[in-house]
Write a structure and sequence with these properties.
Strand content: 15-25%
Helix content: 25-40%
CATH superfamily of the largest domain: Thiamin diphosphate (ThDP)-binding fold, Pyr/PP domains
Strand order of the largest sheet: 2-1-3-4-6-5-10
CATH topology of the largest domain: Rossmann fold
Structural class: alpha/beta
Number of domains: 2
Number of helices: 12
Distance between the termini: 37 Å
């Protein structure tokens, strides 16, 4: 997804002189071509996350369109006050791109794990929170971000994220994308776990359990209409995310609990437990440890529907 980000950003920057790319001493081997082509529209602020966010906010306030890129855990955790006051409070249309969501940098240990970024960012007024499921969704999000009038946080994985969509899509911020249709239950998934959700659905189908799967790429604003409708259509709603408390599952639960138009569907959320990772490891290893591998999810859904 990183390559899709840079390629799409370069394409947009050739047509719009307002676009700038700001990094915080990350992304080596990723931005060299952008820097060569666009010169002073690329700025490396260094390892100074608070400065990095304030710099981006200042660019936006002066009419530029900054895309500020950093490791998700570094940018959100270290510079949250600046994100709140310089970006969200002033409604500056900065696009914050957090790479390494969830366990993408799993081998780096808890300093690099992004367990709480979605929860923190969706708390902020004026902030839109988007987690593309694959490079196809990432490109569409980027194209829509250019003229977006509010701050946006885009959470991505790394370069190893595969293409999931087999054809073009019509991505609308705040509207889920139907990936497959079923009658037994519905599974909402956000971010790079999209491929895992579809694999879990395939496992279930072989057992005669047919579920719907939606890519819930936008966490804020959440697709309330979709949730309301599905709460009447299905007996059970499941959510899947590479995040801890306060993310997609919590956002959907808030809709179901506070909305008089919601049905009686049961909600079950699959996410990280309320602990720090006890060890480092690959994304796949850590997710399986937490019971979030495709096979794990399929077993849990089958059991819940019995």
């Amino acid at each position: 997804m990183r390559k899709t980000f840079v390629d799409t950003l370069s394409e947009m920057a050739r047509k719009d002189n307002r676009i700038m790319c700001v990094i915080g001493d990350t992304g080596f081997s990723v931005f060299e071509e952008f820097e060569r082509e666009f010169g002073d529209r690329f700025v490396n602020v260094g390892i100074a996350e608070q400065n990095f966010v304030g710099f981006g906010a200042g660019l936006a306030a002066m009419g530029m369109k900054p895309y500020i890129y950093n490791v998700a855990s570094f940018m959100v955790y270290r510079a949250f006050e600046e994100i709140e006051l310089d970006v969200a409070y002033q409604n500056n249309p900065v696009v914050l791109v957090g790479v390494g969501g969830g366990h993408a940098y799993g081998t780096g240990g808890p300093t690099h794990h992004a367990y709480f970024d979605i929860a923190m960012m969706r708390l902020l007024p004026n902030m839109t929170v988007v987690c593309p499921g694959d490079p196809v969704e990432m490109r569409e999000v980027m194209l829509r971000s250019k003229d977006y009038k509010h701050p946006m946080y885009i959470r991505i994985g790394r370069n190893t994220d595969p293409v999931v969509h087999t054809s073009g899509i019509n991505l609308v911020i705040g509207k889920a994308i139907e990936m497959r249709k079923g009658d037994d239950a519905v599974l909402y998934v956000t971010g790079v776990m999209l491929k895992d959700a579809l694999k879990a659905a395939e496992i279930l189908e072989r057992k005669g359990i047919i579920i719907s799967v939606y890519s819930m790429h936008t966490i804020k604003p959440i697709d309330k209409d979709r949730i309301r409708k599905d709460s009447h259509l299905y007996p059970h709603i499941f959510t899947l995310e590479e995040h801890g408390l306060g993310g997609l599952g919590t956002a959907i639960g808030e809709v179901l609990m506070s909305d008089d138009h919601s049905g009686s569907a049961k909600l079950t959320c699959f996410s990280f437990p309320d602990i720090f990772a006890p060890f480092a490891g690959t994304r796949e290893f850590l997710n399986h440890t937490y019971g979030l591998g495709p096979e794990d999810i399929a077993i849990k859904i089958e059991k819940a529907l019995q």
